[in-house]
Amino acid sequence: MVAVSTGLRERKKADTRAALAAAVLRLAVEKGFEHVTVEEVAAAADVSYRTFFNHFASKEEALLQPEGPDRPRLGDRLAETDPGLPLLDALRAAMRADLARIEDDAATWRDRFSVIAATPALLPRLVELGATDERALAEAVAARTGTTAGTDLHPDLVAAVTTAAVRVAFMRWHAGTVPLAELVDEALDAVAAGLPTPPRKKKEQ
């Protein structure tokens, strides 16, 4: 009975958090993120103002971290992969489920990227979150390779390059129609190949 009650409580919390994150995004698309208030978000999700802060520290967090600040990061996913996999294969495996989940909810994620792109004030927080995730990834790479993040070049470089490759893939995905996982694979393949210079395109006559 205790386990069932705990499970129901956690699902209810997750549902409320998702409703709040969805309300923030919907209102931001409608009127611009800077014009959205926490009071409006709470009302749109049919919860109290206080309940909002039980789930998110701010409207910025609700937009940028819709699953909450304790969401699993790529570094966490990497730590769970088969230790016998080569590092690049392990990174791909670690990303697979999250990329599929984003692709399945593509319209929501594209709206989120559009709001972020239209709101320069979000950039410092976005950079901060990215740096935190990158450090966590470097730590996971270090644990996997027997190196030391922050001291050895390898884990920090792998984390930085992987983060950049994924970011570029996301930007192309947001503006196009190619599946996200395919773009991430293409970016990682290019990195693994040493970023070879592509053939020069012929100019149209």
From TrEMBL:
| InterPro entries tied to this protein | DNA-bd_HTH_TetR-type_CS (IPR023772), Homeodomain-like_sf (IPR009057), HTH-type_TetR-like_transc_reg (IPR050109), HTH_TetR (IPR001647), MftR_C (IPR041347)
Name one matching Pfam family: TetR_N
Span of the signal peptide: none
- For the keyword DNA-binding, the answer is yes
Task: Tell me the keywords, alphabetical order.
Answer: DNA-binding, Transcription, Transcription regulation
Give any GO molecular function from the UniProt entry.
DNA-binding transcription factor activity
| Gene3D superfamilies to which the protein is assigned, alphabetical | Homeodomain-like, Tetracycline Repressor, domain 2
Asked whether the keyword Transcription regulation is assigned, the reply is yes
Could you tell me which residue ranges the HTH tetR-type domain spans?
A: 14-74
DNA-binding region at which residues?
Answer: 37-56
- Protein name as catalogued: Transcriptional regulator, TetR family
Q: Which organism is this protein's natural source?
A: Klenkia taihuensis
